[in-house]
Design goal:
The protein is mostly helical and 94 residues long. Helices cover 45% and strands 4% of the residues.
Length: 94
């Protein structure tokens, strides 16, 4: 199932809308396409595409670098808060 980009990142007047921490977590959890409970770079790329990132592959790599605390190449449920903090830092506001 392909998720559609979130057009709700801005309203119909182009004003930026804030996403809550829970909304961001939901978007990242939905990106777990193989349902293994963790996000790989490809899944992160899809999540950042959905969030409107222009260079989603690069953003996914940077997110892994910053949020993957155990450096196993995946974002686990325990690392999700760090991923949300990274996303907020780059403009996906809570």
């Amino acid at each position: 199932m392909r998720l559609m980009p979130l057009m709700a990142h801005t309203d119909d007047k182009g004003q930026k809308l804030n996403l809550t921490e829970e909304q961001l977590k939901m978007i990242f959890r939905e990106a777990d396409t193989n349902k293994d409970g963790r996000l790989d770079k490809k899944e992160l790329k899809g999540a950042f595409e959905r969030l409107g990132a222009i260079v989603s592959g690069w953003r996914a790599g940077r997110a892994l670098y910053h949020a993957d605390q155990d450096k196993d190449g995946f974002i686990s449920e325990q690392e999700l808060d760090d991923l949300v903090k990274y996303a907020v830092n780059w403009g996906y506001h809570v």
